[in-house]
Amino acid sequence: MDFLFVQFLNGLASASSLFLVASGLSIIFGVTRIVNFAHGAFYMLGAYIAYTLTQHLTGVVGFWTALLLAALIVAALGALIEMTLLRRIYDAPELFQLLATFGLTLMVEDLVVMIWGPMELLGPRAPGLEGAVPVFGQLFPAYDFVLIALGPVVLGGLWLLFKKTRWGVLVRAATQDRTMVSALGVNQSWLFTSVFALGIFLAALGGAVQIPREAVHHMMDLQIIVEVFVVVVIGGLGNVFGAFLAAVIISELNAFGILLFPKISLVLVFLVMAVVLVVRPHGLLGKAESDSRPAIGTAIEPFRRFGTRGRNAMVAVLLGLALVPLFAGNYLMSVGTELLIFALFAASLHLMMGVGGMVSFGHAAYFGLGAYGAGLLVKYLGAPMEAALVAGPVLAVAGAILFGWFCVRLSGVYLAMLTLAFAQIVWSIMFQWYDVTGGDNGILGIWPSRWASDPMVFYYVTLALCAACIYAIRRIVFSPFGYAVRGCRDSVMRAESIGIDRQRIQWLAFTLAGTFAGIAGTLYAYLKGSVFPDVVGIPTSVDGLVMVLLGGLQTVGGPIVGAAAYKALSIWMTSQIDFWKLVLGALIVVLVIAFPEGIAGFWQRRVSPLFRRSETEEEAIP
Amino acid sequence: MKLEVHGLNAWYGRAHILFDVHMRVARGEVVALLGRNGAGKSTTFASLVGLVPARRGDIVFDGHAVGAMKTHDVVRLGLGYVPEDRRIFTDLTVEENLEVGRQPPREGAPTWTPEMIYELFPNLASMRRRAGGHMSGGEQQMLTIARTLMGNPSLVLLDEPSEGLAPKIVEQMAHALIEMKRQGLTIIISEQNLHFARLISDRAYIIERGRVQFEGTLKELDANPEVRDAYLAV
């Protein structure tokens, strides 16, 4: 009993930091509609800078000054980034800001290593609070009592700020209708910058107060960002009270889950999130989103079929790909095989996002299930490659059917977050169910059959399968079913009013997208000869998003271009450059600013018209 | 001139909506912008305050060229805008809605306080703490106007204020507008028909398919029933 109470206090202490970070994310999303992926990075920066400052500022006053100063410095940095980077892309589709902030995250991860080194850093104890206090005969760190108090204090402060100040009223108004706020003479830019700075301040403070409890390291950002997403979604986006409630729930789940259900402790949080979202689609205290902006994927121009020339070009590309083995060595061929696999993966994600309008933060789930499907078949049944290529994706199909049923009940950011939750559930199962999946050690020895073991043959197998699947996706997009899917994306109400069963259509599209991702995953397992939980990890999902967005949502072919460009770039950079994350991140940021319509979209809109005879005389638009 | 508009064009994406719209409004005047649904009235207003994606043309307000200015900068010069779809902040109380609209007093324009607003719209006085979402359509429409007045504008663009309101509310609205006019405000009011506009306007512009088709006093409009029948809903 005493132990349980101390464990409860432990949970509360963790909840405070989580709440600080989550409330920051929530406030930023509420006003600017940015899903700030870099929030974890700012949290991490807060911790690192606080660590450095506490080395110089000592004593009680020095210590707390250092924490506060660290948060302020990071907040100023956040404001600077908002003014120079994000301000340029507020009008771009929502996900581009996610992409830009992801690029920032990559950059910060490397910068932190460059500045502070790769080792874990142990911060000082809080002066005067080094000891432990006996609680029911158990010892509890005195500093954690401060943390427990910090959460409610910040919550109260935020409440006062939003209720009692003009700034707070403006922020709440902008959360609802920012155009109207500017039509009343309020400078939006200034409001956005200040909101962003406040959100980042909270994130950095959350990181800074962690240093007496935990070592500072360069993976802190991803560790917290997933939990923060979960907290924000469970609490309801844009709702600070919800974030507090959810932070407590999640932290207590973590504290007790490890005691009660050690086997599924990692899954537990995501299970709770999935249940909450299904029961309350907008979180515990959230409200329905007001769609102030066109939904993602809403095409300014509809997808275009190939003309004769386009079709010829595709045949030429295919022929070119078939000729690659003539001059490529084994290494280049395996790189080529990987590019093909990711082209299919990206195309399947595009089917879901660009065509279906369902943004997925967790597409790796189906890729990974496909890979594990093959792995498990080989491990337990000794299945040959031919059988595994057919049966492996079945696991992905099953996953897509199950998860899709839940997901199509939601929309927008909530749907995206639920896909993330499911992907993390899959990851946790693969990671934790050691007896079946081998956990961290993965499954080894997934090799192609003898006839396909030559890299060239396997390249052709992959080329044939991926080309066929991508062709199938194209056919789906331009089929009556594809029109129905796009109809549901563009207007649920109009689609339903002409008799389309939206949920069934979207569920089917979801399942199809999962199936193609699963096929890609199975091929990937055979390419690598092994499967590890990483294939289901968040980085895989994010890679997919980057490929699709980089290539351009507005074109059917875009994701394939994006996949080839991004994967080739990252394979080359990881092998050639020490700080490849920094370069890649910077590149993503630049690309987002330069090509908000993606590479293929840029081509279609700007370059390709130069080659076409002008079909219609259009009036010049300033 | 309070407001001079010359050669105003506006686009939504590739759709060209306004074609060389022009307008001249003198200080203290109340002018009606008439036209059918979809004629371009709302786009004209939105263009004046920079809320359309693309526009071109000369807009001179109080001697300032505002044709390329950002929305909030135009509004801060004293050009108040009341949108047609009652975009009040439903989560905020009446008081808070007014607070969002508040701007410093401005020379050459009446200065409003919440108390004066409540006098002008007595309905709002009894619901200061009520959330905007819990008000009737007419009350919301009054709140939109009141909110814009809190910015102490010298000119107000009113987009179809009588749209969809009960006759009794329309009457209250008309009283409020007459009082605003008496305070010296310049007003441009858009309407689909003449009934409401006639109560307060001195002059009228008729717009159809994005072009100005008629301008003149209401008397002149009455003398040309064929114009009225061609361009206005009856």
TrEMBL record, chain A:
Pfam families in the record:
BPD_transp_2 (PF02653)
- Membrane topology summary: Multi-pass membrane protein
Q: Does the keyword Ribosomal protein apply?
A: no
Location within or outside the cell: Cell membrane
Q: Name one GO molecular function term.
A: branched-chain amino acid transmembrane transporter activity
In Gene Ontology terms, what is a biological process of this protein? Answer: amino acid transport
Record InterPro entries: ABC_transp_permease, BCAA_transport_permease, LivM-like
Q: Which UniProt keywords apply?
A: Amino-acid transport, Cell membrane, Membrane, Transmembrane, Transmembrane helix, Transport
GO cellular component entries: plasma membrane
TM segment ranges: 6-27, 34-51, 63-86, 98-119, 139-162, 192-212, 224-250, 256-279, 313-333, 339-357, 387-406, 413-434, 457-484, 505-527, 547-567, 579-603
PANTHER family, alphabetically? ABC TRANSPORTER ATP-BINDING PROTEIN (PTHR11795:SF442), BRANCHED-CHAIN AMINO ACID TRANSPORT SYSTEM PERMEASE PROTEIN LIVH (PTHR11795)
Family as reported in the entry's similarity comment: Belongs to the binding-protein-dependent transport system permease family. LivHM subfamily.
Which protein are we looking at?
Answer: Amino acid/amide ABC transporter membrane protein 1, HAAT family /amino acid/amide ABC transporter membrane protein 2, HAAT family
- From which source organism is this entry? Caenispirillum bisanense
UniProtKB/TrEMBL annotation, chain B:
| Annotated GO biological process | L-amino acid transport
Return the PROSITE patterns for the record: ABC_TRANSPORTER_1 (PS00211), ABC_TRANSPORTER_2 (PS50893)
Species of origin reads Caenispirillum bisanense
The residues covered by the ABC transporter domain are 3-234
UniProt entry tagged with the keyword Nucleotidyltransferase: no
Q: Name one GO molecular function term.
A: ATP binding
Record keywords: Amino-acid transport, ATP-binding, Nucleotide-binding, Transport
Q: Which family does it belong to?
A: Belongs to the ABC transporter superfamily.
Its protein name is Amino acid/amide ABC transporter ATP-binding protein 2, HAAT family
The protein's superkingdom reads Bacteria
